[in-house]
Amino acid sequence: MSTVKYWQAVNSALHEELERDGTVHLFGEDVGAPGGPFAATRGLRERFGEWRVRDTPISESTFTGMAVGAAMAGLRPVAEVMYFDFITLAMDQLVNQAAKMSYMSDGAFAVPLTIRTLCGGHRGSGPQHSQSLEGWLAAVPGLKVVWGGTPSDAKGLLKAAIRDDDPVVVIESLSLWTRRGDVPDDPDHTVPIGAGLIRRPGTDVTLVCWGDTVPAALDAAGSLAERGVDAEVLDLRTLSPLDEALILRSLHKTGRIVVVQDAQGPCSVGSEVVRIAATEGFADLRAPAAQVRPPFAPVPFAPDLERAYYPQAADVVAAALDTIERTRA
């Protein structure tokens, strides 16, 4: 076990998979000699050469389409979209090509493509570099979507995505980029896609989180414990397919659920979790399911406004206490 920063865990995952499998290739803006805009590919071009670690023009649609074709031709490409917001420029390649190719070809073509992209929220990056668009992608059949909230999960999910035979979008958190955590040294350490994790067991209320919201949920659980409330923290890790069984098991135990997300509310992953709780888990609900989420507005640029915009631990505590107060007799 080693203690490393989030970005170092990502770099290690890429290094190990390039070393393990000669069909793994990296594409993206500045992923080569500069080592990536945020250092995630540092040292990889020097080790594996420019043929396998390839800089591209500033055209997400072009290099994503190139990666889709490379995947169909037998490679395992990893394409980096610098900011999550910019994935909108490659939606045709992802949604209409990569996600549907296996289905439309009756399995004749696989698309073992990994898209790495970074969410810039909580850093004063402004409305065009801070969006959480996971709900868009999670609604597309044929795409898998994952988001690690710790260095260990960031590494394990990325390695699992690269080894997967389906297209996977791996979201990473710039707000957690320098946060340290323990990561297994085993080069075959992966995190199963589709499996959530109970980060903190509890009996009174379930706090559902992922990605950027994991620290806030854990901090809130600590504050709730000081008030005598035993909160369970459930980290989804995979947003499509959701671990519905784990959500329902946790709800069965606690009877209450609060979903914490950085994405706006309508048509979101959090909305889907609430739907699961309100339908499949209705008999276990002792209080209405709740969401803690930003207002339906663009992300502010000013730091004070951005802090007010995103859910904080205090907001999660307030929502959990309100849910407990609204418990049905």
UniProtKB/TrEMBL annotation:
Annotated Transketolase-like pyrimidine-binding domain residues: 4-178
InterPro entries found in the cross-reference section: THDP-binding, Transketo_C/PFOR_II, Transketolase-like_Pyr-bd, Transketolase_C
Pfam hit, one: Transket_pyr
Obligatory cofactor(s): thiamine diphosphate
SMART domains referenced in this protein's UniProt entry, alphabetically: Transket_pyr (SM00861)
Keyword Oxidoreductase listed: yes
Keywords: Oxidoreductase, Thiamine pyrophosphate
Any one GO molecular function term: oxidoreductase activity
PANTHER family in alphabetical order: PYRUVATE DEHYDROGENASE E1 COMPONENT BETA SUBUNIT, PYRUVATE DEHYDROGENASE E1 COMPONENT SUBUNIT BETA
Cited NCBIfam families: PRK09212.1
Protein name: Alpha-ketoacid dehydrogenase subunit beta
Organism: Actinomadura decatromicini
